[in-house]
């Protein structure tokens, strides 16, 4: 499984992804889900991927090949992130269809892949788009300034509670790491190394990048403090026994 997050706030973008690929309990490997693409200097584009590994690798390879061969449409020619998301969606659908046809009749084969495309194309503002396996896509909003793909349910509550559009980049980064740690704790198919990338708007450079191993001191400290503070907050909650008790009504047919 996979877990990836992109947060889009006023100051820029925060991208977070795990690196574990699970094809069964006896087939676990590490593959990076964060892909920085070498675009022109007036744009910065990064992809996060989830789903079938063969499909995601084929899509990323096609994007890189189109830029290298100066295809009529590529990430250096699109005029906006939305246009880039549409272009990526078309490639993804094409690769999925090819894999489906090549593996027709195989039970349990699912070539679907999901992507988040994030970055900035001048002169527009930075942003992020989630591209579904069907090729359609959505973006963030002022009420929900983040996108998730993969194993999203365990890490969502902390994002909903703390992320706002005016959250600072480093605060958003810590929130993403807590979200990732919560997911890794509840689902063993999501695991380190954890990639964290912070992009400051209008910089067009990917300079603030971190890679946290399972035993990284900062990640362990973050995990320990979060656990301790949660226990303290839980212990401080009002006791349920202080409320008035009632008689339980019996079932009547």
Q: What is the number of beta strands?
A: 12
CATH class: Alpha Beta
Strand content: 25-35%
Q: Which percent bin holds the helix content?
A: 25-40%
Number of distinct helices: 5
CATH superfamily membership: Aminohydrolase, N-terminal nucleophile (Ntn) domain
Mean pLDDT: 94
- What strand order characterises the main sheet? 10-1-2-11-12
Distance between the termini: 47 Å
What does the oligomeric state look like here? single chain
Rg (C-alpha, Å): 21 Å
The SS-based structural class is alpha+beta
InterPro entries: Ntn_hydrolases_N, UCP009120_prtse
Protein name: Peptidase
Organism: Methylomonas paludis
Could you explain how this protein is built, in words?
The chain is an alpha+beta fold and 253 residues long. It has one domain: 4-Layer Sandwich (Glutamine Phosphoribosylpyrophosphate, subunit 1, domain 1), CATH 3.60.20. It is 32% helix and 26% strand. It has five helices and twelve strands. The protein has helices at 53-68, 81-102, 156-162, 169-186, 217-235, and strands at residues 3-9, 12-17, 20-22, 28-30, 34-37, 43-51, 113-121, 127-131, 137-139, 146-150, 194-200, 208-212. It has a five-stranded antiparallel β-sheet, with helices on one face. A five-stranded antiparallel β-sheet has the order 5-6-7-8-9, with helices on one face.
């Amino acid at each position: 499984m996979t877990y990836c997050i992109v947060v889009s706030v006023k100051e820029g973008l925060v991208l977070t992804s795990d690196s574990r690929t699970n094809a069964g309990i006896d087939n676990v490997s590490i593959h990076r889900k964060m892909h920085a693409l070498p675009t022109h200097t007036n744009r910065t584009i990064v992809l996060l991927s989830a789903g079938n590994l063969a499909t995601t690798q084929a899509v990323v390879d096609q994007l890189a090949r189109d830029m290298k061969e100066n295809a009529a449409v590529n990430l250096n020619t699109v005029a906006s992130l939305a246009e880039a998301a549409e272009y990526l969606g078309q490639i993804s659908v094409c690769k999925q269809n090819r894999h489906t046809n090549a593996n027709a009749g195989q039970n349990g084969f699912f070539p679907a892949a999901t992507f988040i495309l994030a970055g900035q194309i001048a002169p527009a503002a930075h942003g992020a788009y989630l591209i579904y396996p069907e090729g359609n896509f959505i973006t963030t909003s002022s009420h929900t300034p983040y996108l998730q793909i993969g194993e999203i349910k365990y890490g969502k509550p902390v994002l909903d509670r703390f992320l706002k559009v005016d959250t600072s980049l480093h605060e958003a980064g810590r929130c993403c790491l807590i979200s990732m740690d919560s997911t890794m704790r509840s689902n063993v198919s999501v695991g380190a190394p954890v990639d964290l990338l912070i992009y400051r708007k209008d910089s067009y450079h990917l300079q603030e990048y971190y890679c946290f191993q399972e035993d990284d001191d900062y990640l362990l400290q973050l995990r320990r403090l979060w656990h301790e503070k949660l226990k303290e907050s839980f212990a401080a909650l009002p006791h349920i026994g202080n409320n008035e008790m009632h008689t339980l009504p019996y079932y009547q047919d």
